[in-house]
Design brief:
- By secondary structure, the chain is of the alpha+beta class.
- The chain has two domains: 78 residues, no CATH class; 83 residues, Arc Repressor Mutant, subunit A.
- The chain contains seven helices and four strands.
- It has a four-stranded mixed β-sheet, with helices on one face.
- Helix 3 crosses helix 5 and helix 3 crosses helix 6.
Length: 218
């Protein structure tokens, strides 16, 4: 099962401070449940003060948090559509037999399941293909033996080979990264910032122009 992590929003406060607000993954409305304020560089002279605290823009943070929720829901719908098409392609290929096309598609779906952290990828593949788990396990053994998937039979994991990738580029429209929209988004996020991994995109703002007391946020 993939790990569920909190959603976060970051704001810059002037040139000296950054605030991180955090919402549990199960929460979809309201203010943050955790707030951390840290200096950007060296400790600012005088430390934290009520003036700094009053510059935390909760309204803006909540709006951005809601934007994360909406984006996450859109990705979820896109992922569902992608999985439906993946299942249709897999079953159509299998209706012809255990061909090279089918084994390449099966290998791609398997690698996708493992990369997403599914505990039982073979059960997931069986549902996609409309076959029993034992049947799919046998097909994966063939995929490894025939050079579509790396790794040892009976051991979880593996990567697509060049042989599989070339077939997928031919039979799957637009198969550039061979990832669903959700998987592609996660891969980009992990490469860009491996210390902030959230279900919805975190918002890194700033540093903002410091606000003076009595001045409205822009």
């Amino acid at each position: 099962m993939s790990k569920t992590v909190p959603r976060t929003v970051m704001q810059g406060i002037g040139d000296d401070w950054v605030v991180t607000m955090e919402w549990p993954a199960s929460v979809e409305n309201g203010g943050p449940m955790r707030l951390v304020i840290e200096p950007v560089g060296e400790n600012p002279v005088g430390g934290l003060s009520s003036t700094v605290l009053r510059q935390v823009d909760f309204r803006d943070a909540i709006e951005r948090f809601r934007g994360q929720i909406a984006a996450s829901q859109r990705r979820g719908r896109e992922h569902e559509r992608y999985e439906k098409h993946r299942s249709e392609r897999l079953r159509a290929a299998l209706s012809v037999g255990v061909t090279d096309d089918y084994l390449a598609l099966l290998s791609s779906a398997y690698v996708s399941a493992v990369n997403r952290g599914l505990e039982k990828p073979n059960d997931y593949l069986a549902e996609l293909a409309g076959k029993t788990t034992s049947t799919v396990r046998g097909h994966l053994w063939q995929a490894r033996k025939q050079g579509f998937l790396t790794g040892s039979p009976g051991r979880k994991g593996g990567q697509l080979t060049d042989k599989a990738t070339k077939i997928l580029e031919r039979i799957v429209p637009g198969a550039d990264a061979l990832l669903s929209p959700l998987e592609s988004h996660q891969k980009i996020r992990e490469s860009a910032d491996d210390h902030i991994l959230v279900e919805g995109p975190p918002e890194a703002l700033g540093p903002k122009e410091p606000k003076r007391l009595g001045q409205k946020a822009k």
